[in-house]
Design a protein that fits this description.
Strand order of the largest sheet: 2-1-3-4-6-5
CATH architecture of the largest domain: 3-Layer(aba) Sandwich
Number of domains: 3
Strand content: 15-25%
Distance between the termini: 63 Å
Largest sheet: 6 strands, parallel
CATH superfamily of the largest domain: Thiamin diphosphate (ThDP)-binding fold, Pyr/PP domains
Number of helices: 25
Radius of gyration: 25 Å
CATH class of the largest domain: Alpha Beta
Shape: globular
Number of strands: 18
CATH topology of the largest domain: Rossmann fold
Structural class: alpha/beta
Helix content: 25-40%
């Protein structure tokens, strides 16, 4: 078989059924190769960055890895931000880029980005777990396998540059699927786990902990972590807050849910975690960045804080005390097996914990909940999210873009299932959600998919709605159109007329834009019309762009986070 056929067969063997790409001269051999097989469906994006975002969305929704194919040089350059975003969110991606033939490197061929010129491999090295060029046909098999192993081991994107002569070279080999069990995804430090029991029994503090809180991060999403988390929390009546990225890892209408802690978080989570330090704070799978810790207002006392993370670096950087290096699902499964030795302390404190939690839950959960019923026009973003949540299926998948709408969605959207609230939360590139939704919908054709984005994001990657239209994907693109770069404008307009002007956008007719690209287009100006617009979009067999004229003067629901910033000192 040829090199292209070998790669496609290998991807199929790994369970990949979609390849997101933009055709170009340096990957021409793949076009005919794709026609020689039926296992992988090629999806053509509007731009290489969009293709990479689609692969990212596919990876997050499928729990497999995403694959994107493009030419090197300008094509690969367009993927830099998407690959960086995937790297910061630990999303597994395989980037394949075409290159001039090995014998022509450095000779002045058009779009040569080999090691003799721009060196695409070096461009991608800081952003990936592995970046290499295949310089001989005999190297293709083991280098592809190495890339996939590095991708899974590090939970980061990887890159292979494929010269055209490698693509068409005969390959006498066959790829066998990688057994992921060799990568220690179920790792658990048994000695540390055994020592961690003292936090639950009270041996470390002297008395059994009453006010116990779990802060669940994205690490809980792996494997059957969400189910184990729910079982453990219910068994001992322990409330659970989540980071924004892990939103919904415990359904937010569950009686033990405190909602999101940190940026756009709830009053309930703040009260439980920071107003008065709990007797025991169990942090599972969070990187403990600025937003996840309420701008570092979360005090990590080693006497009452237990960190569980696969990264020793996260544990070592955030506490001088004790932590358990472990996969969160493995630790929770082990912890459930320790019910007999835990029963004496956790049963005796159950009533006190229930009373404490009841007091917290008796107070308002959200900031300015009246905004959810706002009848003003232009429309308040909280009302938009409230109406979409009412219309949207409980198991629907929501993608949230970057901007002021991220804060509104994080705060006002109620998430009922793990992995059903999808967002690029660390690097946070604008426009990510628009193409990522295409990958999500291909990965989960059984689910309804909606996007919350803004007009600033549409300026960046709005043309990818054409890809959704091309493949008749029933995605709902909700554009919260406030004629501004929302989050930036909220800061800048108070600084004078020039900052105001620079962060203000023209009121574009995004419904007409969507219509011109093959989508259904709807404009909503009155909040009373939102429900009908969403119902109509849910019944559409293809994509719908809903241009909602929104009020840019609405403060984002981040009062607790802002207060933490104001009170924070680096010297504490």
């Amino acid at each position: 078989m040829l090199g292209t056929d070998y790669i496609l067969d290998a991807l199929a063997a790994e369970g990949i059924d979609h390849l997101f790409m933009v055709p170009g001269g340096l990957i021409d051999p793949f076009l005919t190769a794709l026609g020689r097989q039926t296992a992988i469906r090629p999806i053509v994006a509007a731009q290489e960055g969009g293709a990479a975002y689609m692969a990212d969305g596919y990876a997050r929704a499928s729990r497999k890895f995403g694959t994107t194919l493009c030419i090197g040089g300008p094509g690969l350059g367009n993927t830099v931000t998407p690959i960086a975003a995937a790297a910061t969110d630990a999303s597994p991606l395989l980037l394949l880029s075409g290159e001039v033939a090995t014998y022509a490197e450095g000779m002045g061929f058009f779009q040569d980005a080999s090691s003799q010129t721009l060196d695409d491999v070096e461009v991608m090295k800081p952003l990936t777990a592995y970046s290499s060029s295949v310089d001989h046909p005999r190297n293709l098999g083991h280098l592809l396998r190495r890339a996939l192993l590095e991708m899974w081991k590090n939970s980061r994107p990887v890159h292979l540059s494929l010269p055209t002569d490698i693509q068409i070279a005969p390959i006498d080999a066959k790829h066998t699927r990688i057994d992921l069990s060799i990568l220690h995804s179920s790792y658990l430090s048994m000695a540390a786990a055994a020592s961690s029991l003292q936090y639950f029994t009270g041996a470390a503090a002297g008395t059994p902990p009453v006010r116990i809180v779990i802060l669940a991060g994205a690490g809980v999403e792996h494997g059957n972590g969400p189910e184990l988390l729910r079982t453990f929390a219910e068994k001992w009546h322990i409330p659970v807050a989540t980071t924004l990225r892990a939103k919904g890892v415990l359904p937010e209408d569950h009686p033990l849910s405190l909602g999101v802690f940190g940026y756009a978080g709830t009053h309930h989570s703040r009260m439980a975690l920071t107003d008065a330090p709990p007797d025991l704070l169990l942090i599972l799978g969070s990187g403990l960045n600025e937003r996840d810790t309420m701008h570092w207002s979360l005090k990590l006392d080693p006497r009452n804080t237990l960190l569980v993370n696969l990264s020793p670096l996260v544990i070592g950087q955030n506490t001088s005390g004790f932590g358990v290096v472990a996969d969160c699902a493995s630790y929770l499964a082990w912890l459930l097996e320790q019910s007999p030795p835990l029963a004496a302390s956790l049963e005796s404190t159950r009533a006190g914990r229930a009373q404490w939690l009841e007091k917290i839950l008796s107070t308002p959960r959200l900031q300015d909940p009246e905004n959810c019923l706002s009848a003003t026009a232009p429309i308040h973003p909280a009302r938009i999210l409230t109406e979409l949540r009412k219309a949207f299926p409980r198991d629907g998948l929501l993608l949230v873009d970057s901007g002021a709408h991220r804060a509104f969605a994080g705060h006002y959207w109620t998430c009922y299932e793990p992995r059903s609230y999808i967002s690029a939360t660390n690097l946070g590139p604008m426009g990510w959600a628009i193409p990522a939704a295409v990958g999500v919908q291909f990965a989960r054709p059984d689910r309804k998919v909606a996007v919350i984005t803004g007009d600033g994001c549409m300026h960046m990657h709005g043309p990818e709605v054409a890809t959704a239209a091309r493949y008749r994907l029933p995605i709902i693109f909700v554009v919260i159109n406030n004629s501004a770069l929302g989050n930036v404008w909220l800061r800048a307009h108070t600084e004078g007329p020039v900052p105001d002007e620079l962060t203000t956008l023209p009121d574009i007719d995004w419904a007409a834009f969507g219509l011109s690209l093959g989508c259904k287009g709807t404009t909503v100006r009155d909040p009373a019309d939102l429900a009908a617009a969403f119902a109509d979009a849910l019944g559409n067999a293809g994509p719908t762009v809903i241009d909602v004229k929104a009020d840019k003067n609405c403060k984002t629901p981040v009062a607790d986070f802002s207060a933490a910033i104001a009170a924070w000192s680096y010297h504490e």
